[in-house]
Each structure stands twice: as structure tokens, then as C-alpha cells.
Amino acid sequence: MPAPGGAGVGIEVQDAVEPQSLKKLSLKSLKRALDTFTPAHADRVASLSDSAKTRVVCKVNDEYAAVKDMPLEKSAGGAKPGDYGLEGLRIPASQQPITNSGTSSGNMGGMELALMPTRAQPPPRAPVVGAAPAAPGVDRTSTAISTTDRYIYQPSAVVLKRLPSKWPKPVWHPPWVNYRVISGHLGWVRSIAFDPGNEWFCTGSADRTIKIWDSGTGQLKLTLTGHIEQVRGLAVSARHPYMFSAGDDKQVKCWDLEYNKVIRSYHGHLSGVYCLALHPTLDILMTGGRDSVCRVWDMRTKAQVFALSGHENTVCSVITQATDPQVVTGSHDTTIKLWDLAAGKTMSTLTFHKKSVRALAMHPFEHTFTSASADNIKKFRLPKGEFLHNMLSQQRTIVNCMSINEDNVMVSAGDNGSMWFWDYKSGHNFQQAQAIVQPGSLDSEGGIYALSFDQTGSRLITCEADKTIKFWKENETATPETHPIHFRPPKDMRRF
């Protein structure tokens, strides 16, 4: 305490608290537990309530509904139906509870579960020689049990038939090989589209140009300039001599292929445009970009028909079809949305993925599509977007693009340059290929950003980060004997 009347600083002295040892704390906790539970040790456990009894009965019926009513055959040892309980244990007649109706049934907490077959009351047994005298009021003739009759294990009389796996068996496909590499772009090749006549294809690149290539020879035919940023999306109309392009410069352009010039520009996106698709029967165009909106354009008038808003992040993939839902979009917000094009509203939202949905692929003639993300590749059925199954393997990379041909061969490619070939029906991965970067490029430039089958489905073209374009075709010398199918159906069907 400070001195009286003085200006000095007072000093308080506190008693040092001795820390308690772990052993002492354990003993205290044990004493507290004994004091709490010892007085109630001799109390009787309360019986089950009616709701608990009903819950137990329902659970038992759910577990044993398939086997509780099965007929039991007569065994070689003379056992009769009703002599066996659950799991093949023989239960003596004297130990089976007898109900008021004279039939035996399982009893749990006063409840009749009726899991074992019923039978008539057995005749009384002779008393066991040398047994202890029976208590008053107890009939020893009905309760005596022989030594050899107690819990003798017998095999089950009925064997459940094992059902075969319902997973479809994959069809054999020959492996694909790389047979040509062409170069001409000065930047990453980001997009590709084929001519409906299969005579040429176009590619868009980060060097801001669009190049036209001959499909048969791979020779460069034409270079188109007009974008001021990388070209991320391309589409060629099957009903008009038009080609459409979209890029990071917020521009969507319509090219007249007779004059090789831009004849229309579609203005409205607030940021870069990442994907582009043409409706197969209507003169409309769908584009999606970083402004989280899929915009629907009138091809002729350049007017914006709809702004399909609802995504919370970049719309990076879009596919269209002639029937409802006519537009399907995938986004970095991990969702897939099915859109009603007549009303301009969302039909349903699929939330099965955990990562960004960067690629969507529609089957050529089935009403199904696949979506690719870093977590898995999933298959859905249209029009309601019902989840079918995951692909049986996991590529474990960021999948940028996918494509499916009419032979049910699906290809997915990722940032690490891996190409996986799938049997679309079964989801079986029958080949894994790795892109080889061209000399002078870094190993990290092996990523594949776009790929597409030609109109016949017999050739595959990939666009890669090493500024090259690679051609792939089926190996004509491969046979099912040289390249057998190593297929194992999934064990746990619930995750599919």
C-alpha cells in the first residue's frame, strides 16, 4: 500500500497460486463423476416408450424385410422350419417365446417382431437326470435344455441369389494417335470451329487473329484481323455464310465468309466474352462472359433479345439445342443453369459440382450432356437435368474443353496437357494421352484450351498453349487383342 500522504507508487503483493498436477485434476474429475452417478446406480432403467418401440420395429423390418418371410427347407439333421433364427443359429424349441396365440415369434422389449417362422407348441421334454430341483410353480419339463441342443451352428438353408452389376459394359474403341502438328499462331490457341462442309476449320488465338486452315492438308488459307484482344469463342453457321467470334475486348463480331469482312458487331457485354454458341434452328446467338450474364442476340438486327442473368460469376461455357431447355450454361460459381428461351427465365439450377464448370458438351443425338470441372466429369439427362453418373475415373486437373462424336467417344483435355478418351455410355476411360510441347516451349505450356471433332467424327483437332494445332486419328492397326479393355464396374453405386 502507498505510504500515507506520500506520492510513491504502491506495490501489491499477490500470493503465488500453486499449479495443480494432472494427477490431482484427474482424481477430482473421477470423484465428481462418482458423486454424480453412484446414487442412481441401482435405479431401474425406464422401459421403451411407444414411439421408441415403433421406431425399433420399423428399423428391424427395414433391415430384414428381404429374408424374414423366406421359406426354410428341411435340413439333413432333421431340423424343421422354425428351428433356425437369424444368421443360421439353431434355437431350441424350449427357448422360443410362446405368444398367446400359440405361435412363436421374436420378442424385443415386449414387442412381437415376428421375424422367425411360426410353428405349433412342441411336446414337453423329459426332465434331465441330475438336474437341480425346480422352484415351486416352475415346470422343468418345458424349460430343461440338453447340452447338445444349445446353439448349434448350422448353415443357412436359403442362399440369396447375387444380382449381377447393372453397370453397362463398355464398347471397345481403338486408341487415338497424333499424326500431324501445324503452327502459325503467335500466341495461345484458344478456340476452334469446323465448317459444316468439313472443308476447312478456323482457330482463334491470343495473338488477336483468326486463321482459316484446310482440313485435309492443314495448310493456312486465310488470316482475319479485327479483334484487339485474344479470341476466345468461334462458331460457324450451318444455314448462313457467317462466322461469329468473341473475345476479351467485349466484342462479338459477325464475319461474312464471302467477303471475309465484319458486317455486324453486337455491343452489350460489360467485360470479356468467354463462350459463344449458335442455335441450330433459330437465327439467334448466345454469348457468355465475365459480366455473369448469358446474352441472346438476334443474328440479323443485332438486337439483344434476352439477358439471362442469375449466375454469380463468369459464364464460361454455353451449349444450345432445338428442344427445351434450349440453352444450358456453366459458370465459375460451380452451378449449371437450364434456361427457358421463350420466357427468358431459369428452368432449373444444378449444383452437383464443387468447382468451376469450364466445359459443357452435348451428345450429337441423345438428350444428354456432360459437364467438366476440376472435381469430376458428370453426365446429365435432359430436359430436367437429372444426374446420371460420374465418369469412372478422375482426371485431377482443370478440364478446359470436351467433345463427343457419334461413335460415343468423348475427349476431355486439361491444363496439364492430358487428354483422356472415354466411352460415353459407360463412363470408362479407355485411353490417356499426354500432349508433347513443341521444341523451344516450356513444359508448363502443354495446356489444351480447345478441341473439336470434325463433321465425320474420325479426326480430332486440339488447340494448345504451345501455339500449335495437333491432329489426331484412330490407330488403324489396333485390335481388341492388342489393346484389351480393363474395365471394373464401380463397387459403391451410391456415389454414381
Q: What does this 3D model show about the protein?
A:
With 496 residues, the protein is mostly beta strands. The chain has helices spanning 22-37, 50-64, 140-143, and strands spanning 107-108, 111-112, 176-183, 189-194, 200-205, 209-214, 220-225, 231-236, 242-247, 252-256, 261-266, 273-278, 284-289, 293-298, 304-309, 315-320, 327-331, 336-340, 345-350, 359-362, 368-372, 377-381, 386-390, 399-404, 409-414, 418-423, 428-434, 448-453, 459-464, 468-474. It has a domain at 176-484: YVTN repeat-like/Quinoprotein amine dehydrogenase (Methylamine Dehydrogenase, Chain H, 7 Propeller), CATH 2.130.10.10. It contains three helices and 30 strands. It has a four-stranded antiparallel β-sheet with strand order 3-30-29-28, with no helix packed on it. Strand 26 and strand 27 form a beta hairpin. The relative contact order is 0.09.
User: What's the β-strand tally?
Assistant: 30
- Percentage of helical residues? under 10%
Q: Which outline best applies?
A: elongated
Span between termini: 76 Å
| Major sheet attributes | 4 strands, antiparallel
Give the CATH topology of the domain at 176-484.
Answer: Methylamine Dehydrogenase, Chain H
Widest sheet: strand ordering: 3-30-29-28
Strand content: 25-35%
Structural class: mainly beta
Radius of gyration: 37 Å
Q: What is the CATH superfamily label of the domain at 176-484?
A: YVTN repeat-like/Quinoprotein amine dehydrogenase
